[in-house]
């Protein structure tokens, strides 16, 4: 791997083209279909699980829970539990999550605009 080691022994930068670099797993996590949609859905405000599930059509409870755990583990989202009966859990973007979501929002916007052209290409 061609990265330099920074504070606490972690690489100071990644090289996603290097198969041994941890950037590969980060890339895999943030570019999954469900992760992109979760991150973009959270861009404007925190949401509870049920609201996220309604906002992201087609995602199963299991897949949403798995995606949220992965994104939380990578530091992209925060999970806040309010000790009520029953407990209320909400999810929000961290600073790291807001940074990646700026890029993903542009990707989603571009895809939405280009759908007609893509569908036309598929039909050819």
From TrEMBL:
InterPro entries: HTH_HxlR, WH-like_DNA-bd_sf, WH_DNA-bd_sf
Keywords noted in UniProt: DNA-binding, Transcription, Transcription regulation
This protein's record includes keyword Amino-acid biosynthesis: no
Domain HTH hxlR-type residue range list: 21-119
PANTHER family membership: HTH-TYPE TRANSCRIPTIONAL REGULATOR YODB, TRANSCRIPTIONAL REGULATOR, MARR FAMILY
Protein name, as recorded: Helix-turn-helix transcriptional regulator
Organism: Pseudonocardia acidicola
């Amino acid at each position: 791997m061609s990265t330099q080691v920074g504070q606490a022994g972690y690489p100071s930068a990644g090289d996603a083209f290097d198969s041994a670099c941890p950037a590969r797993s980060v890339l895999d996590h943030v570019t999954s279909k469900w992760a992109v949609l979760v991150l973009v859905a959270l861009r404007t405000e925190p949401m509870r699980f049920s609201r996220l599930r309604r906002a992201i059509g087609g995602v199963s409870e299991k897949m949403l829970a798995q995606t949220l755990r992965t994104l939380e583990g990578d530091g992209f989202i925060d999970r806040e539990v309010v000790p009520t009966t029953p407990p209320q859990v909400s999810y929000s973007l961290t600073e790291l999550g807001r940074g990646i979501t700026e890029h993903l929002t542009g990707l989603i916007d571009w895809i939405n605009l280009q759908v007609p052209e893509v569908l036309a290409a598929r039909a050819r």
